[in-house]
Design brief:
Elements lengths: L1 E11 L7 E6 L20 E4 L9 H5 L5 E2 L6 E2 L9 H5 L5 E4 L1 E4 H9 L2 H7 L2 E5 L7 H13 L3 E6 L5 H10 L2 E5 L5 H8 L4 H13 L4 E7 L7 H12 L8 E7 L5 H6 L14 H14 L4 E3 L3
Parallel strand pairs: 2-8, 8-9, 9-10, 10-11, 11-12, 12-13
Antiparallel strand pairs: 1-2, 1-7, 3-6, 4-5
Length: about 300
Amino acid sequence: MKALIENIQHYSLHDGPGIRTTVFFKGCPLRCRWCSNPTTQNMGRELLQKPNECLGCGLCATLCPRDAIKAESGPPRVDRARCDACGLCAASCRGKALLMAGQEYSLDEVFGRIRKDMLFYRNSGGGVTLSGGEVLAQHAFAVELCGRCAALGIHTAIETSGFAPYEHFRALALVADVIFYDIKHLDPARHKELTGQDNALILANLERFLAETDKSVHIRLPLVPGLNDDAAHLEAYGAYLAGLPGVPERADLEVLPYHRLGKDKYAMLGREYGLGDTPPMPRAEAEAAVRLLRGRAGDLKVFCAA
């Protein structure tokens, strides 16, 4: 069994307790306008370019079998319509100005990387977080990986939008220790406008899972200025969560204020960033949103850790 992985990040301190190894899966059915991991969106290898790292040798243009790279004056220009992401240019780039996002790993290879960090997990109460992209896009691999971790007592967490068949979500959620579940907007039409998909499946999966199991879910709201932070939406959001099965005992809500940490990755992919120069959300605005949510969420715990 193999999976396409964008990155395996060691010594992570977020998205779960303790020191963690985060596995970023490739592929996502959503296209969130604020996505901070655009290199994980497409289900396939992609060429990244860092023009400032280019040594100007022109070797990439010489090697490209599809004539997709032109090295004239300055950094080479990549014709992404011609590029088939073979990776030959990146493998030969001396300055590391060309890189590949996405590598195929076997289950044994990923688990081998995880096992090397077990000392850190034991000493910090950490573990493994499966992220993306959307981890459910490669759910069978993720279920097997979580099972192997569980067999060695390694704590596991998953980050998901829940946009997948219920059976896929349930199978992975039942073997994970912690479930982080994004709900980006309550209105179906607005959700589709912001992410490319409506939210019917996302909400239905969450409601059914909470009703059918006794597991807890950590719900997350990525809060983006001008897109989902208006008072009417926040009040409706809080009221919706208050009515979910198992609330407040088996759920909480974490507000994630918008940031621009992934903006440069769009340029590396030859794409424009959807939110332009939208500034990060000020702390005071995030705190005001938390107060609004708490006012309608009943006894549900609402917090902002950022």
